[in-house]
Amino acid sequence: MRCPGQDKRFWRPEDVVELACNRCGQTVEFFKDEGIRRCPACGGRVINPKVSLGCAQWCAHARDCLGYDPKNAPGGDSGQASLADRLVEAMKNEFGSDPKRITHALSVLDVAEQLLRQERADPRVVVAAAVLHDIGIQEAERKHGSSLGKFQELEGPPIAERILRSLGFDEEAVKRVCQIVAHHHRGDLDSIEFRLLWDADNLVNAREAGSGTGVEEVRLRLGQALMTNGGKRLAERMFGALSGAEGTVRPG
What we know:
Elements: E1 16-20, E2 27-31, E3 36-38, E4 45-47, H1 62-66, H2 83-95, H3 99-116, H4 123-132, H5 137-144, H6 149-166, H7 171-183, H8 192-209, H9 215-225, H10 229-239
Antiparallel strand pairs: 1-2, 3-4
């Protein structure tokens, strides 16, 4: 059980903050322990001036309590660009003038961060996988003339590895992120980090396809695709009650 300072069951209404994005004015919701979030409308960086990690900021047992070190977690504002921001910049440099792929990665990052609040997982791995899961798509198109998942999974890991090493990720984290990138179309890895990325990617793809696909069809397909309870709860808020009918929404 988490200590009262970090257990959301003990939090009060004032521990949730709504702030306006400085770029577009969109309302962005923060929990008190979130320092930075991406605006879901424009992708801009929004800083929470009221961030408070409570006892986790100084407690020697914070890693055991939270499952990660809050001083090093993405989203913390240390006066420098956060890990998530540096990953996003590296992803943008790789994709260049490709707003569709950049916007998709930012959307998956936003949903993955929402799901991280509901599951105990390594935030470095989840955030990196969310930003870089499709990083091989342009190379797949260049070398194979196709953006099919099998080509993305082939070309993505070497690019992801290069980016991760340049940002100082340790060997274990590099390995885990690259494994997710190499399997993100197949759904055959057994880790909570992979399941969170899988659900975030599925949810974003379902939302992106919503304009051309009936909401009922999206609900039917998501019913079998999602792997986490948090993903299913978020899907119900986005699309309504899910069905267990056959079918999956494959990640992009």
